[in-house]
Amino acid sequence: MNKRDFIKSSVLAGMGMTLLGSGSAGAVNKKQTQQIKNWVWENPNQKATDEELAEKYESFYEAGITGIFFEADSERHFRIAKKAGLETHRWMWTMNRGEKELLENHPDWYAVSHEGKSCATEPPYVGYYRWLCPSKPETKEYLTQKSREILEKDYVDGLHLDYVRYCDVILPVNLWENYKIDQTKELPEYDFCYCDTCREKYKAEYGTDPLELEFPDQSPSWRKFRYEQINGIVNHLADLAHSYKKPITAAVFPTPEIARRIVRQDWTNWNLDGVCPMIYHGFYRESVKWIGDAVAEGKHFLCGKFPVYAGLFLPDFKSDDELSEGIRFAMENGASGVSLFGSIDERVLNILKKAKNG
Questions:
Q1: Which structural domain, as residue segments, surrounds residue 291?
Q2: Is 325 contained in some domain?
Q3: What pLDDT shows up at residue 357?
Q4: Which helix (H) or strand (E) holds 341?
Q5: Would you state the pLDDT for residue 31?
Q6: Is residue 166 included in any domain, yes or no?
Q7: Could you give the CA distance from residue 317 to residue 148 in angstroms, rounded to a whole number?
Q8: What is the pTM of this model?
Q9: Edge-to-edge strand order for the sheet containing 39-42?
């Protein structure tokens, strides 16, 4: 399953029309945060020849792209990209894991909705939405093992986390029509996680079973509890990556407020080396200018903790001028670069070159 089939299909139907120094995470390093780096999310094309890949990655580097988040492992792609001067980071699905072995042998590891439905057997929205429960120690152990397998490879420069959150309790507004959903309020079938582990842990800390909360969407402690479960996973993996002296980044929702509200993601409290907020303005029915607003909000709450690389969804831009404006708004508001999702063609490379050269 390609990274954003859910997003791509939604855009096509609904619109009609994802670095870094090796210093300790969290330390303010002005020189590091001011260093401009641009990234692309990419699934390696196994059919491409070595010559084609070399030409492609060299053109990326010349245009100002400095690193690639590879969705799949391919030593050939990684080494050719490294030879072209690019950083090579492995892009890992984190909480959303649909491996057959997990589903068959460990269905109890999966998140459970307020309605009592497990992602192992009744995934929300789409078939590949198989969310693990971050409260379970088995989840942390499994993700540690998978991360270690990546970090041990000498051709991998860093680890990039994605889907590092709960299921969307509320989708971005532009997707509602495509999925025939009105999410002006939280709905129980998309509200996670209410498994036995989460319920017992929350009750031990706060004295109440979350299933007994009259208005769970209005409970600050229940929100905080879930933020902390994801925070614990991320910061554990950050410690692991740093033990290998490799940086760790993450693709996150566009602003701290949106991330907390719709996917229980508290990314300003993560010990990362950089973050790529997916500021996909079309999904929120916002103008290109909002990209700058989102970057500014993230920068404000991070207080220099690590760099922000503005994630841009190329199909959202209606023209070359719009893409140029999006990059400009991001940089003027403090981004340390951009991360691009979509087709990186000659047109996009030329826009990046112009941005690089001022």
A1: 5-93+148-182+227-356
A2: yes
A3: 83
A4: strand 338-341
A5: 36
A6: yes
A7: 37
A8: 0.91
A9: 274-277, 248-252, 158-162, 87-93, 67-70, 39-42, 338-341, 310-313
For 109-125, write each residue's pLDDT tens digit: 999 999 999 999 999 99
> Does residue 209 lie in a domain region?
no
Q: What pLDDT is attached to residue 22?
A: 33
Sequence-ordered list of residues with C-beta below 8 angstroms from that of 60, at least 6 positions apart, any chain: 40, 68, 84, 86, 344, 349
**Residue 35 pLDDT:** 86
**Is residue 116 assigned to a domain?**
no
**Is residue 33 within 8 Å of 307, Cβ to Cβ?**
yes
Could you say which residues of the chain have pLDDT below 70? Answer: 1-34
pLDDT tens profile 170-204: 999 999 999 999 999 999 999 999 999 999 999 99
CA distance 254 to 172: 11
**Per-residue pLDDT, 72:** 97
CATH code, domain carrying 39:
3.20.20.80
Q: Which helix (H) or strand (E) holds 338?
A: strand 338-341
Q: In the chain, how many domains are there? A: 1
